[in-house]
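Two proteins, back to back. First:
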Amino acid sequence: KEVVKILSEDYGMCNRDIARRLGLTDAAVSQYLAEKRGKGFELDEKIYTMVRESADRIFRGLSSIDSEVCKICNEIKRRMGEKK
């Protein structure tokens, strides 16, 4: 959801381009932007920074959504392991 929002608001990408870049439908992008999908998630500052950096790499064509999601998931898993 946050990547969609950042690509739309900060980079001015249209819904169709966001959908293509992220492998989503136009409808899914619209729902994320209207906050009908992806609700109930709070990101801490570190993870939000990672999401912003990921959106930038995706926008510039330097990385894929799959690769970026893996990076963020690995950070979350690492943190969860530290809390045990």
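And the second protein:
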Amino acid sequence: MATMTKSMAVSLAPKILVNGLALGAILPPSDGTENQDIIKKVPMKRWADKGEIEQALIFLLTCPGYITGEIIHVDGGRHLV
């Protein structure tokens, strides 16, 4: 996804902005044991709620016209560890 986003951002600029969302732990599985294993790996120690995903998407849809080729990780910091 990262390579495609960057490649498209270069190819389509300056007329089209290309950015992406990389989603992490959003909705917990129905089995409570899986929840604990996943959340232990997330620095924020919780699931994202749909409002946080919506806010990130709205930001990208309304972001300044000079941001392109970026990926916003909405994963509670999991991509950092």
